[in-house]
Every structure is written in C-alpha cells, then in structure tokens.
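Researcher: We're teaching a course module on how sequence relates to structure. For the next exercise, students receive a sequence and then see the predicted structure as tokens, so they can try to spot secondary structure elements on their own. Here is the exercise chain.
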Amino acid sequence: MRDKIILLVEDNPDDEVLSLRAFKKNNVTNEVIVVRDGQEALDYLFCAGAHAHRDTSIQPTVILLDLNLPKIDGLEVLRRIRADNRTRLLPVVILTSSKEEQDLLRGYGLGANSYIRKPVNFNEFVEAVGKLQLYWTLLNEPPPHTANA
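Model: And here is the predicted structure for the students to work with:
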C-alpha cells in the first residue's frame, strides 16, 4: 500500500499520535504524510513552500482533514481543494471533534466526501480509523490523476 498515501491534516499533537497509533493497530501499511496546519496542507497538495520539490504526479489517495486548524481553517482548505482542477476530485474525509451542525453542513456543501466525528474512546477511534482505511484505500476506486486537467 506504499503507493496509496494518506494525508493527515491534524494540528493537535495528541490526536496525531492517536491517529498514527490507530493506523498501526489496524496494520495500515500506507504511507501517512502528516501536515499540521491548513497552509502546509495546501503547500503539500500544490507543491509549494517546503513541498515545492515534491513529485506532483503523486497525490494522496485520501485526505483526512481536521477543521480547526491554524493559519488556514479546514473548511477553507477544502474550498481550495475543490476549486482547483488538480485536486478537485481527491477524496476528502473531514475527521474532526466538532459537533457543530454548521460545520457538518458547510463541509458537505464544500464537497467533503465524508464527515466523521472523532470518537473520544480510543478503542472506538481505532475501529473508526480501521474502517476508514479499509474503505478509502482498499475498496474505493479513486479518480484518475487530474494534474493535467
């Protein structure tokens, strides 16, 4: 699964560690790229800033996007992903602790493929991450690469 990258956009160090532990407990072998704010997520996706020399032909299979991010919030990151032909078809799963109905509505309105509230219980979180990985990296048929669209 090394060719199916998971982009984890998460600013909370504890949630990052929990996510990576959950991937490990589920034997996820995909490469997981972690970015810690909205600007870094966009730099990674659009090969800018510190990621300017990244191979533009390799895009994540799925983006796990938190909403409450520094610099640029998750909903704005999602809006920019959907506004660009190179990334508009990438699967984006909002993975957040937000219980705000407005976030849910705006996330789907901006084109999120899924919206998942992070379970508080670690075992439930591990189970949720396992299901996410199974669906998005094994079962789901991703869109073709659209860098030249």
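Model: If you want an answer key for the exercise: The radius of gyration is 14 Å. Residues 6-137 form a domain with the Rossmann fold fold (CATH 3.40.50.2300).
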